[in-house]
Amino acid sequence: MAGKLSNSFALVKASANVLRLDKELIAFPILSGVAAIAVGATFAAPFLATGNWDIFANDEGVEYAGLVYAASFYVAMYCVMFFFNAALVGAALIRLDGGDPTVADGLRIAWRHIGAIVGYAVIAATVGLILRAISERGGVFARIAAGLVGLAWTLVTYLTVPVLVSKDIGPIDAVKESAAVFKRTWGEQVIGNFGLGLAIFVLVALWTLVSVAMIMAGLSFAPEAAFGALGIAVFGYLLVTVVGSALSGIYCAALYRYATAGDVENFDAAIMRNAFRPRQGR
Hints:
Layout: H1 2-21, H2 27-50, H3 60-96, H4 103-112, H5 114-137, H6 140-156, H7 160-166, H8 171-221, H9 223-261, H10 269-275
Helix pairs in contact: 1-8, 1-9, 1-10, 2-3, 3-4, 3-5, 3-7, 3-9, 5-6, 7-8, 8-9
């Protein structure tokens, strides 16, 4: 376990090196965040305009309309998330294959597969709504079951986006292939993502300490200085989030490329072999 975790941190470092080579990959999480805010504002506009936040309450017919509205919101948000994640992964795959990607390259790849991305968004939104309904309307065991099913779904679909941008197949076939690759690399995938998550957690913790120190120092001078420190702290958290999202996309692309091709540009071959040893009895 310790060896695998050590390898996962080495892979995080390699992902960071790819991001250093292609800093423009940070643009995709930023664009995703901006687009998500725009979608959220669009769906909230009717409520903000009328001031009626209970429009979908009580009446049965209106409740069904509320379900349709919620489903549409889910699909729209998933479309935004998957589109820009596909652009990030597509650009990362170009780098991992020895190329020099641009933001336009990533967006072009995502747009070329927009039909499959929308289809996958519909599937993911449907699964999410079903699990949410089970969790909200069932008892404690239903919530536990929904949580476990949700975790399993997240794991087996982890590589769906790189599959979609690498092959001209539909969303259902992409989910099936992601599940098949997951069966070959499940331990490494889970531990590697744990390593990535732990690295981000450490960054957040360190920045929190710095932020608290800055705000306390600002308070000792003037309220305006404290507000300035707070603004810097918020910007730092946003930066960590953006970098973490970019590293996650690069890591996902590297995992898929090695699992399917056996060789990844900019990633040490020995580390990849150690990290992705074949499962016993496969």
